[in-house]
Amino acid sequence: MLRMRQICLVAEDLDMIEAHLRGVFGLEVCHRDPGVGRFGLHNFLMPVGNSFLEVVSPMRPGTAGGRHLQRRGGDGGYMVIMQCDDIAARRAHVAELGIRLVLDGANEQTDGIQLHPKDVPGAIAELRWNVGDGAIDGPWNPAGDHWLPARREHVITAMAAAELQSADPSAMAARWAEVLEIPAGSDGDGHPTISLDDATLRFVEATDGRGDGLGGLDVATVDRGHVIATARHHDLDVSEDESVVMLCGMRFRLV
C-alpha cells in the first residue's frame, strides 16, 4: 500500500494562504502542530477527502523552509508525504539505494523517513507508516487526533494528482519509480506518471522559470463555479479555460 496522504506547501504569509484555501476550496483547518516550531516553522493542516493539505511558513530567518522560498522564488510545493504499510521494508530499500535521510523518527503511533531532495529531486519525499493504516479514513498522526470533523467535501473531494516539474521529467520519474518500487507509465499527453493507490504522480517539463519542484495539484472538484468565482474574488490567477487556479504558487487543476 502506498497512498498520497499529505501534500505540504510553503508560504510567506500563512494567514493569507489559509484564507484563500478556506474561501476558494471550502476547506477547514483540523490541526496546527506546535512540533514544527523546532524547525522554525508554524503550520496548519486541512483535510481534503481522506488526505491532507499542509502549509508551513518560516517564523525566523535561516530555516529550511525559508531557504526553499528563496531558491524557488516564492510560495510553492514542498513535500509529498506517502503512507505505506511496511516502513521497515521501505527504510531498507532506501538504504540500499544510498539515499540520505533528512529525518528519521518514530513514536507509538507513527514511523517515517524523509528523503534528501538532492538524492530524490523535485520535492522532499516522505514515507510514513501510521497506526490504523488499513482504514481509508484512518488516523494520521501529523493531522492531530480529531481530523474527521473538519473534513469538508462540498467544493473539492480529493487530491487526485501531484505534478512535479523538471528540466528532465523522464529522469526524475525514473528516480521516483526506483525509490517507490512502482514502474513509471505515462498519461494521455505523454507525461511520465507513477500510479499510487489513491493518486498519481505526474512529471512535466519546467516551463515557469522556477526549476525543479512540486508545481501543481489536481483536485477532484464538485463545485467549479464556486472555485472560479471565489478565486477571482481573491484576485488569484485563473486560466483562460477556467481549468487551473494559481494559489500558493501552485497550479491547482480542477478535475
How is this fold's topology laid out?
Layout: E1 2-10, H1 14-25, E2 41-48, E3 51-58, H2 64-72, E4 76-84, H3 87-96, E5 101-106, E6 110-115, E7 124-130, E8 156-166, H4 169-180, E9 185-186, E10 192-195, E11 200-205, E12 213-221, H5 224-233, E13 244-247, E14 250-254
Parallel strand pairs: 1-3, 4-7, 8-11, 12-14
Antiparallel strand pairs: 1-4, 2-3, 5-6, 6-7, 8-12, 9-10, 10-11, 13-14
Provide a descriptive summary of the structure in words:
This protein is α/β, with parallel strands linked by helices and 255 residues long. It has two domains: 2-150, 2,3-Dihydroxybiphenyl 1,2-Dioxygenase, domain 1 (Roll), CATH 3.10.180.10; 156-254, 2,3-Dihydroxybiphenyl 1,2-Dioxygenase, domain 1. The protein has five helices and 14 strands. The protein has helices at residues 14-25, 64-72, 87-96, 169-180, 224-233; strands at residues 2-10, 41-48, 51-58, 76-84, 101-106, 110-115, 124-130, 156-166, 185-186, 192-195, 200-205, 213-221, 244-247, 250-254. The strands form two sheets. The protein has a seven-stranded mixed beta sheet with strand order 2-3-1-4-7-6-5. It has a seven-stranded mixed beta sheet with strand order 9-10-11-8-12-14-13. The longest helix is centred in the first third of the chain and has 12 residues, at 14-25. The two termini are 24 Å apart.
H/E order of the elements? EHEEHEHEEEEHEEEEHEE
> What overall geometry do the principal axes of the alpha carbons give?
globular
The overall pLDDT average reads: 97
Q: What is the CATH homologous superfamily assignment of the largest domain?
A: 2,3-Dihydroxybiphenyl 1,2-Dioxygenase, domain 1
End-to-end separation in angstroms reads 24 Å
**Residue runs with pLDDT of under 50 for 5 or more positions:** none
Do you know the CATH topology of the largest domain? 2,3-Dihydroxybiphenyl 1,2-Dioxygenase, domain 1
Strand adjacency order, main sheet: 2-3-1-4-7-6-5
Largest sheet: 7 strands, mixed
Give the class-level CATH name of the largest domain.
Answer: Alpha Beta
Helix count?
5
CATH architecture of the largest domain: Roll
Instruction: Please give the number of β-strands.
Output: 14
Structural class: alpha/beta
Helix content: 10-25%
Percentage of residues in DSSP E strands: 35-45%
Overall tally of domains: 2
